[in-house]
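Module 6 notes. Inverse folding takes a fixed backbone as the condition and produces residue identities as the prediction. Think of it as a translation problem where the source language is geometry and the target language is the twenty amino acids. Below is one complete input and output pair. Work through it position by position during the lab.
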């Protein structure tokens, strides 16, 4: 068996041998297929990159058929059970689990970079009283590039390291301040005595008490949620970070673009839609009618189905367990009962089984976030904080990848050609 593809161009009768590597062909190899020397070579048309690999990556592995998700080769279940978010962040960025010294240094560095310049605070205070926290996070992350102009020196690994530390450290500060802003509450400064997630909860919820002490079960559940969201290979926002990063801009600008992509309802907003759906169903008695509506094509069971996972999303299983831990502290969200019953019915129903529709990460995450008393606008902010190490790991990989070029897709031009400009006096006469 030869690892190549023989292509016959029926326009010319010519045959070409195109090498196959890692189950792909190089799109550029199609460029040799032409009807004449002065004609453009063959290209592929792939809106949304549904069947195009844009990079080689060793960060995250997904097998959607089997329901497998691994960061740097480690199954998500083991990481969620045994690791911390900062340990996972180190793993994603540096490719291996840290030694004790590496971990202590990493945690120390991140803890001591959580403060932002006071002008960032004034900048954020300038937003309108009802500004969406995700818009504030996107703008303030991008604005960090103006506070660290040296970040544009992306070729220097030490410089990249410090910007990565800063970004992971400051994201909770910016996210919490965006949350406090909409509530008209004073921004709370980071507390370096607390761990990453406890500190975030403190900046979100602290009032006049000397120190905000989060329930450890809540802090751990949020840490696990961050781990689950830390990377997901070439999704829309990661692709945005890579695409913008390919211009060799600084990482704050590239991650700002990723936050913009995550803001969109097709990417980060599905858990909010799950909550709306559960509220609309209202009680267990209404589930059969709702399911019938889904089967008739009038409804969509939000939080079910995934472009990649055609099996139980491994993150959904872990989140389901985290629900129990959170509700033990906060009391049960009444919508949970509806969600569980809905899941039970859907997993047995032929419509869903045949189409391989299983709960995805968003089916339960909204319920947990609501138990924390986060308004829905904060859900994507939480997602962004969790995804930051993944974006940065992918960005760092991009910088070191000799194959990468500035992202610049082709197009199929469908407009006019060679028109003659008519001066305004004639057009408007
Ligand atoms: C995630 C999603 C966009 C993936 O879409 P996709 O890979 O393009 O899958 P398709 O839309 O081709 O769906 C395949 C079939 O399953 C059905 N289907 C997919 N998701 C469904 C859902 N949530 N409820 C009911 N039917 C669904 C489709 O109608 C289609 O049925 P058909 O073959 O009879 O036409 C889709 O499953 C969805 O909209 N889910 C709900 C939103 C959600 O939870 N998004 C978060 C993802 S993390």
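Target side of the pair, the amino acids:
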């Amino acid at each position: 068996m030869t690892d190549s593809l023989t292509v016959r161009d029926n326009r010319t009768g010519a045959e070409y041998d195109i090498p196959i590597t890692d189950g792909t062909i190089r799109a550029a190899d199609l460029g040799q297929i032409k009807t004449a020397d002065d004609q453009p070579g063959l290209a592929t048309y792939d809106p949304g990159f549904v069947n195009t690999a844009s990079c080689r990556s060793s960060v995250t592995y997904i097998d959607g058929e089997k329901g497998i998700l691994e960061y740097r080769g480690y199954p998500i279940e083991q990481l969620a059970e045994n690791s911390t978010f900062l340990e996972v962040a180190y793993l994603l960025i540096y490719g291996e689990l840290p030694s004790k010294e590496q971990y202590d240094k990493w945690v120390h560095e991140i803890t001591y970079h959580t403060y932002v310049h006071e002008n960032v605070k004034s900048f954020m205070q300038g937003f309108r009283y009802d500004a969406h926290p995700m818009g504030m996070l996107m703008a303030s992350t991008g604005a960090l590039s103006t506070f660290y102009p040296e970040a544009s020196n992306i070729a220097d690994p030490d410089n990249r390291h410090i910007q990565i530390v800063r970004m992971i450290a400051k994201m909770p500060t910016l996210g919490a301040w965006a949350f406090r802003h909409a509530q008209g509450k004073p921004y709370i400064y980071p507390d370096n005595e607390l761990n990453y997630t406890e500190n975030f909860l403190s900046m979100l919820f602290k009032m006049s008490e000397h120190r905000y002490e989060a329930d450890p079960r809540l802090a751990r559940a949020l840490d696990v949620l961050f781990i689950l969201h830390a990377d997901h290979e070439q999704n829309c926002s990661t692709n945005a970070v890579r695409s913008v990063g390919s211009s060799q801009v600084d990482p704050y600008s590239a991650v700002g673009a990723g936050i913009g992509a995550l803001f969109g309802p097709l990417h980060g907003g599905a858990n909010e839609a799950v909550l709306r759906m559960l509220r609309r169903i209202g009680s267990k008695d209404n589930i059969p009618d709702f399911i019938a509506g889904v089967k008739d094509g009038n409804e969509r069971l939000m939080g079910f189905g995934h472009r990649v996972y055609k099996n139980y999303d491994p993150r959904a299983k872990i989140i389901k367990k985290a629900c129990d831990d959170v509700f033990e502290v906060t009391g049960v969200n009444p919508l949970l009962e509806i969600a569980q019953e809905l899941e039970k019915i859907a997993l047995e129903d032929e419509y869903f089984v045949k189409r391989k529709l299983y709960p995805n990460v968003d089916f339960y995450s909204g319920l947990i976030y609501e138990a924390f008393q986060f308004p829905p606008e904060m859900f994507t902010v939480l997602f962004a904080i969790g995804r930051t190490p993944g974006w940065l790991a992918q960005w760092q990989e991009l910088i070191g990848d000799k194959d990468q070029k500035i992202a610049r897709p082709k197009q199929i031009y469908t407009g006019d050609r060679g028109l003659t400009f008519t001066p305004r006096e004639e057009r408007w006469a």
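Reference fact for the lab report: The radius of gyration is 24 Å.
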